[in-house]
Amino acid sequence: xxxxxxxxxWSSGKDATLTLLRxxxxxxxxxxGLYTTYVRDEVPFQATPMAVVxxxxxxTGFPLxxxxxxxxxxxxxxxxxxxxGGIRQQMPDVxxxxxxxxxCNGIEAYRRRYIEPAGWSCVFPLLxxxxxxxxxxxxxxxxxxxxxxxxxxxxxxDYCGRWFDAELLRQLPHTVDPCGExxxxxxxxxxxxxxxxxxxxxxxxxxxxxxxxxxxxxIFTSD
Length: 223
Known about the structure:
- With 223 residues, the protein is an alpha/beta fold.
- It has helices spanning 14-24, 50-60, 76-90, 107-115, 131-140, 166-171, and strands spanning 4-9, 29-38, 42-43, 48-49, 64-68, 96-98, 121-123, 144-151, 185-191, 198-209, 212-222.
């Protein structure tokens, strides 16, 4: 059977990267590209500048669809229309959309409500798997990741700028999900098996936005 053409929801972090790697290994799918939603030239929550997302996409070799949102929390109808319209306009032969969601908390049903009526299937390569095992898989695969945003209501801001590694996983409070799936932290991937090269990151400081601590940095591409 011919593989389905799938586009990956790309946040710039570890979950999206692991999703991409899983799909590249799955003969049922052919990865056609990536898409990213952004507000004012930055990925919400990750606080990743779009220039960095574009650099990541170049390293993967896949085309990137950029979908602008009017605000971080637009009405559902606006968000869904922007995503569906952006994909349909720029990559009309897509047959499936993949997401890096891990928790069975209603997000799967939400995604299906606007993706499937557009004529595409939803793919969730990580859904329902154990967070600790997924965190270990991220390390085992050599996905190099740095914590770029911390919700200080759930985790100390001191973790901002730390590498996602075995030591960090050992030190995380037991109340924090190992993959930050409750929003405790967000990440940026600088190197992975699906990258042709890597991003060299030079931190320049920590920006505080209410309860969030965001790492600011300069990026240089090595390929």
